[in-house]
Amino acid sequence: MTATALALPAPGSQEAGAPALVGHSLQALLSRACGTEEDPAAWNELSRRFGRLLLYTARKVGLNDSDAAEVAQQTWIRLWERGHQIRDPESLPAWLAATARRESLRLAIKGKRYLLCADPTTEHGERFPPAATDVYPADGDYEPLLEQALARLPVMQQRLLRLLMSDNCPSYGEVAEILRLPVGSIGPMRMRALRALRDTPELSSSAWLYQR
Question: How many CB atoms lie within 10 A of CB 29?
């Protein structure tokens, strides 16, 4: 299997002919999905359990249904690439949510979209065990042009965006505590930071294309 060949069924559906793995532990599913066998049934079960979470996360940061579906697929590709690095399978939901939010922000920056101020980690009504950032980063360093663009922002805006795109998926309350800011200021500051970021020379020109 290759990343481009990774195609998952719609959340809640089951691919015909694939045995159901309902009730299997996350450790077993990760082992079967990301191991040498790359079991399609394991991917089906992961999609059934977490597909709606990925779509919800993307929509809650302001993306439409089409873009949310793209984010979900990109998030599954990230898991296909890095799932073998996950040491604590129980933190997989947090890893997926953090990765989906990061992919959503990057897609929004690429398309110069405006994002809503909602905090998806609290509005979803459930907090997952945090992902260990020192164990399996959701992604590596940012693209050089994005790093250059971020460097042009005020330090506080840089810290805010990096926190929101970090692997442990902090809530707005946690971000506010780290930055020592009122929690109500985080959403509006994020929008200002994204507007400033998209207007930088690096991201406003055609030189920066998001390709992963």
Answer: 22
Report in angstroms the alpha-carbon separations of 24 from 31, 34, 65, 96: 11, 15, 30, 18
Q: Token pair of 116, please?
A: 């809503």
Q: Which of 169, 164, 50, 162 is nearest to 121 (CA)?
A: 169
What's the pTM? 0.61
Q: Report the percentage of the chain scoring pLDDT > 70.
A: 68
Which tokens sit at 107? 């897609």
Sequence-separated (6 or more) residues with CB below 8 Å from residue 142: 150
Rounded to the nearest angstrom, the gap between the alpha carbon of residue 198 and the centroid of all alpha carbons in its chain is 19
Helix axes 65-82, 26-34, angle to 10 degrees: 80
CB 169 within 8 A of CB 124: no
- State the pLDDT at residue 68: 92
Q: Could you tell me the two tokens for 127?
A: 């907090």
> In this predicted model, what pLDDT tens digit does every residue of 117-163 receive, in sequence order?
444 444 444 444 444 332 333 344 556 777 888 899 999 999 998 88
